[in-house]
Write a structure and sequence with these properties.
Elements (H helix, E strand, L loop, with lengths): L28 E3 L10 E9 L10 E6 L6 E4 L5 E8 L3 E6 L3 E2 L17 E5 L1 E2 L1 E8 L10 E9 L12 E4 L5 E7 L2 E7 L17 E2 L11 E3 L4 E3 L2 E2 L6 E9 L8 E10 L2 E10 L5 E7 L2 E10 L5 E4 L2 E5 L4 E10 L1 E12 L16 E6 L18 E2 L6 E7 L2 E8 L5 E9 L15 E3 H4 L1 E3 L4 E11 L2 E8 L10 E7 L12 E4 L5 E7 L2 E9 L8 H4 L5 H14 L2 E4 L4 E8 L9
Parallel strand pairs: 2-8, 10-17, 10-18, 19-26, 27-35, 36-42
Antiparallel strand pairs: 1-27, 2-5, 3-4, 3-6, 7-9, 10-13, 11-12, 11-14, 14-15, 14-16, 19-22, 20-21, 20-23, 23-24, 23-25, 24-26, 27-30, 28-29, 28-31, 31-34, 32-33, 32-35, 36-39, 37-38, 37-40, 40-41
Amino acid sequence: MFSREIPPTTRLVLLALTWTIACTLSLQAQTISANAKPEPITGSISGRVVNNSGQGMPNVTVYARPSLVQSQRATVTDSEGNFKFDGLDSALYQFFAGAPGYILPPRDPDAETLYYRLNDSVSLSLIKGGVITGTVLSSSSEPVVQVQVRALLVRDANGKAPKSLGFQLARITDDRGVYRIYGLAPGTYVVSAGGRNSFGGSGIYDEDSPTYSPSSTRDTAAQILVTGGDETNVDIKYRGEAGHAVSGTLTGAWDGAVGVGINVSLTQFENGTPTNTASFFAPPGRKTFAIYGVADGEYDLMAQAMSAPGESGVSETRHITVKGADVTGIELNIKPLGSISGRVALAKSEVAECKNKREPLFSEMIISVRRGEKQKAPEAPRLMNFYGPQGVPNQSGDFQIKNLGSGQYNFGARFFARYWYLKSIVQENSATVPPAKTTAANSQTDLAKNGVTLKFGENISRVRVNLAEGAASLHGSIKLEPGQSVPPNLFVYLVPGEKENAEDVLRFFASGVGSDGVFALNNLQPGRYWVLGQVTPNTEAQSQTKLRSLAEAETRAALRRAAEAGKLLLEFTPCQNVVDYQLPVPPQPSQKN
């Protein structure tokens, strides 16, 4: 099947130094109009799709989807694997491709989304997916015909559990009881037959409790290792046990609203990771729900309503226990979700080195929020937000982020202009504060450092994202001695070198080091920085976005201590590009026997 993101449907919304440069230049900034330069209207993006041998793949469907837009365009590659989209509006685009049995290589869940702009060239590589096939037989060894069999990823190829319950591949058995699921990403799976799942029922087996391979409940299910291009046989002895029902009523702001459908999801977790889900879609006007085929276990239950204009509501998460009987009479009270709105401001530099540099385009920006990592249900309902908690500024720089549940959020901004940097993210505490006084410390809240806590239905406004011209960059490599190689999980960090900026989270930068030893740090605010090369365990912050989050204050403090001890200091001036910088290989962490 195609490896792409699926748009919502009426049935169910489917689903990141050893020398010092000394020079001081002042940055004299002035705020510029949002319409100082017209943004391009349309353009094209071209690219190529290849297989894992680097050969072009013909007749592959490629999808282009702009940020926060539900519709997407599709085209097909030519005989050499080339494709081109013409007449695209200025925006940030994601690209997906798929061919039967092939998938895009899995991405690190912590990695930033890869976006493309007008006139970019896209390279997509498809790999042969894995296959799970087998036979489903009854207790009397008869074929179980037309039962839905599902493969659920529980760990990726790197052993990481998925952070959200992804798309489950499913197939129906034939008259022999045989199924074949292909196009699977490498990783570890559990395989089940029967029961209702997140994509609706499978006919006469809807009300059965799912049977997991080989003939088990979820807690004793066999774990199946799948590698790309290989086929694994997994047979299931169907238990045929009746499941239980979870039912109740839907109340609240969306109770009986015209044109609003409600999805009720029942999710099972293992060590905080979603492992199974079932759902019920209530069409507009319906006030009750019932999910059948539920096995014994601990679950989180919630309801989410979505209306035509994109407004949404959600119930608080209810934790329930299913044990030997139906669970009935549950009331899910749906409340309106919150939103955050504000404006992006651009400040030009008068420094000569920054003249005639490209300005960032509002259409190529994304302002995003990310829920605090340490929050758990029910404080943090798991929403089906298919376009992410983010907003794209309009031509005036105004943005709005909708459909946010209650909880604490970190802020971030993505933009594409080499000589600009993110200076601050603040909330103006009074709408009546004159513009000339908005820099006063007592008139603003530092959202980059402190984040924001949002309640159900709350609308937070007057957020100001300040971008400034004058960004510097650092490109370099690790200086390897004969016989040395680049250690795995090696990162290069920049930590603010001035004491007065030690707590400025936007002055912390991180870059992974490639296997060739090369690293790059861009959009740097001018100033002094301690430079640190460090091997970072998988359990610690490995992305710049995560490093800047509220939960990583101790990590930042530890990095600052290590960087200061290393005594490698660099000073960047406005619009300066430091290239060919060489950083010694950092000492390896000691191994305990």
